[in-house]
Backbone:
């Protein structure tokens, strides 16, 4: 995905994403996340949650990353995206995702490990979202009602 520095900076500077899933009805949920420099988004979640069950049946996902302290009068910034989501099972990628997760969200490194996930000591799985479209709203960069799309 062709991205720019401002978009990556914005995504890396936030910690929560609101995900929209759908299977026999829509659902929205907030999860903590990390992202790599290709704008792939990783999060941990229990597959038995409502959004986890939706993902098991429908790999299409949408999401929003925004600053909840943003005021109405402020210059708007935010990210909306759509893409594909899956559980990360490949060991090298899981280790990579957990490494960047634990760097951004320190404190559980000894518990949030590939071994604990594989052995079922943790109910959570590592999920990866590969965006197919990102809309970056940034009125500081692009002017009023300014947005740039990345595919």
Residues:
């Amino acid at each position: 995905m062709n991205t720019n520095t401002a978009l990556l900076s914005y995504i890396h500077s936030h910690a929560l994403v609101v995900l929209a899933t759908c299977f026999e009805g829509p659902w929205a949920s907030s999860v903590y996340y990390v992202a790599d420099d290709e704008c792939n988004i990783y999060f941990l979640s229990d597959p038995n949650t409502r959004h986890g069950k939706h993902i098991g049946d429908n790999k299409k996902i949408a999401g929003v990353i925004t600053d909840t302290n943003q005021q109405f009068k402020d210059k708007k910034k935010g990210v909306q995206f759509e893409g594909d989501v899956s559980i990360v099972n490949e060991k090298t990628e899981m280790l990579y995702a957990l490494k960047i997760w634990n760097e951004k969200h320190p404190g559980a490194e000894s518990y949030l490990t590939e071994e604990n996930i594989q052995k079922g000591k943790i109910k959570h799985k590592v999920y990866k979202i590969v965006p197919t479209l990102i809309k970056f709203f940034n009125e500081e960069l692009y002017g009023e009602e300014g947005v740039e799309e990345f595919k």
